[in-house]
């Protein structure tokens, strides 16, 4: 391995360490802030933790379309993150013993998955019509961007109203962090955020360098490797929730991150001054769009049917389907990406 390849991989690993460590701190301090301010478990997962753990995607996307000028990495990172988050549900199901994760969580997650299908469908629709020259824009921004932002807030409001109706008037929870001051949590949260921001700005350049020295295509790097790094905070939260037995919070964080990640594309579109972002990206990303749609569909079916059968008593068929789609999507991008 020559010096340039070694440097590229060392940079990659450093990004993994920085985002992984800082992301785990972000999740913990975000949880402290949520409890200290009286936010419920739904908001911890869907809003606060989702926004916190999606910070690398936000910074990476903006820096990809501005500093690095790599729209395919920006789009691929978002779609790849959505697919990786759904695959983490399969990992969570594998870690759980006894009944599957789909039978242990609220059916209310169907709302988040359903809205994700709509938002991801808008991305796929925009990619395809842009490739045929039928773009509709507001200046340099695609018409899809304001639609995505509006639907995001509709989704959040719908999920919140549903959960509130289901919970009724729950008893006041005991503060799990009695000795942790809110001010201290906020300061540590900001410090951890700065580390994630720094690593996120560096990340797209690492992706471009890897694509160059390894001979990989940018759509593959963006969708698999960059998205793998930026979903490390979500993975950290998922493992933490598994250890606590808070499966609903874990699923809510993953699906909430997907909703937030898709909305990040509208922010990336705003900073990409060469025209609508999705109209300049490769149509191969439509493969990731369809993969994400199928994965969300499988998740909805599992949440409705609550399957009990597990292969070798370790993992359900739904989880195997999710993981298989992740591998297939990665293989197609590697073989046919531009």
Radius of gyration: 19 Å
Low-confidence stretches: none
Structural class: mainly alpha
How many domains? The number is 1
| N-to-C SSE string, H for helix and E for strand | HHHHHEEHHHHHHHEEH
Tell me the name of the CATH homologous superfamily.
NCX, central ion-binding region
- How much is the average pLDDT? 84
How would you describe what is shown here?
The protein is an all-alpha fold. The protein has a single domain, classed as Up-down Bundle (A middle domain of Talin 1). It contains 13 helices and 4 strands. The strands form 2 sheets. Strands 1-2 form a two-stranded antiparallel sheet. Strand 3 and strand 4 (315-316) form a beta hairpin. The longest helix is centred in the first third of the chain and has 34 residues, at 3-36. Pfam families: Na_Ca_ex. GO terms for molecular function: calcium channel activity; calcium, potassium:sodium antiporter activity. It is found in: Membrane.
């Amino acid at each position: 391995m020559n010096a340039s390849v070694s440097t590229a991989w060392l940079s990659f690993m450093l990004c993994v360490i920085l985002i992984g460590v800082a992301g785990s701190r972000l999740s913990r301090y975000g949880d402290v802030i949520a409890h200290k301010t009286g936010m419920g478990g739904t908001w911890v997962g869907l809003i606060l933790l989702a926004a916190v753990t999606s910070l690398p995607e936000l910074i990476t996307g903006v820096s990809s379309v501005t500093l690095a000028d790599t729209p395919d990495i920006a789009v691929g990172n978002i779609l790849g993150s959505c697919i990786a988050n759904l695959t983490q549900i399969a990992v969570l199901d594998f870690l759980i013993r006894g009944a599957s994760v789909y039978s242990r969580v609220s059916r209310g997650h169907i709302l988040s998955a359903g809205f994700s299908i709509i938002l991801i469908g808008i991305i796929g629709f925009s990619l395809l019509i842009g490739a045929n020259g039928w773009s509709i824009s507001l200046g340099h921004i695609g018409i899809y961007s304001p639609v995505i932002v509006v639907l995001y807030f509709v989704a959040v409001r719908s999920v919140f109203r549903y959960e509130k109706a289901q919970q009724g008037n729950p008893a006041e929870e005991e503060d799990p962090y009695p000795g942790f001051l809110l001010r201290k949590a906020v300061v540590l949260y900001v410090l951890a955020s700065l580390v994630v921001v720094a690593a996120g700005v560096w990340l797209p350049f690492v992706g471009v360098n890897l694509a160059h020295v390894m001979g990989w295509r940018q759509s593959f790097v963006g969708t698999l490797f960059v998205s793998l790094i930026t979903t490390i905070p979500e993975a950290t939260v998922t493992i933490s929730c598994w250890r606590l037995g808070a499966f609903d919070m874990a699923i809510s964080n993953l699906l909430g991150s997907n909703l937030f990640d898709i909305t990040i594309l509208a922010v990336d579109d705003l900073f990409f001054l060469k025209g609508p972002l999705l109209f300049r990206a490769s149509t191969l990303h439509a493969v990731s769009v369809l993969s994400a749609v199928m994965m969300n569909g499988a998740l909805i079916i599992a949440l409705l049917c609550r399957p009990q059968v597990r292969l070798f008593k370790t993992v359900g068929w739904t989880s195997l389907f999710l993981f298989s789609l992740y591998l297939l999507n990665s293989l197609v991008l590697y073989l046919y990406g531009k």
